[in-house]
Structure formats: structure tokens, C-alpha cells
Predict the 3D structure of the following.
Amino acid sequence: MKHLFVPYDIALMAKGKGINEDCITRWGETSKKLYETWKPMKNSEDCEDFTTAPLYQQLIDWFEEKHNIFIEVRKLNDNKWCYQIHGPSRFDLIHIPSIISKYESYHRAFFEAFKLIK
């Protein structure tokens, strides 16, 4: 089930951009290991040695609801993937084709979307 949660580096960037959603897992900042929580936790409630680990869908929803940034990842005909980002400005459109995997597309899309948050 680990593959459902964003990797440590993305979770840390999200924390730095202010994500504060209930999460059922968290990353140990020293160990870089994923830990389950006994109850949903937010970054504001967590101790400084941990960063909450949102689901991919949680992070996509957070971008949409909090920052008006829309991320789309889709499969191309040649078994490769691409992503599009529609940002808060009508000029914020990023389209990158030919990524090797679905999750790599999401990772790259998240890094680009974080750049659009002021």
C-alpha cells in the first residue's frame, strides 16, 4: 500500500507550502520511513520529527481546492505518460509528454505545480 502515498521529498515540499490535511501515514524525517498513525494527523499536530504523507489524490485535491491548480496525468498511445497543469492564471499551462511511468509523471507534475504557489 506504500505506493498510494507521496514520496518523502514531495511530502516535505507540500509541508513547506502549507499542506495541513488529515493523513493516516507520516514520514520519519530522520529515518525516511513511512509510519502508520493511530488516528488521522495533520502537519500542525505532528511533532517536528515527522511529515505527514498524503495520498496522491489528497495532494491533487489540495492543489485544486487551495490553489486553483489542476493536474492531469494520462497515458499516451505508445505506452508512455504525460502530464498537464492548468494554473491559477490562464497563462499557467505546462504540458510535458513522453514520461516513462505514471508515478514519475505525477512526481514531475507536483514539482512543477509547487513552483506556481507563491
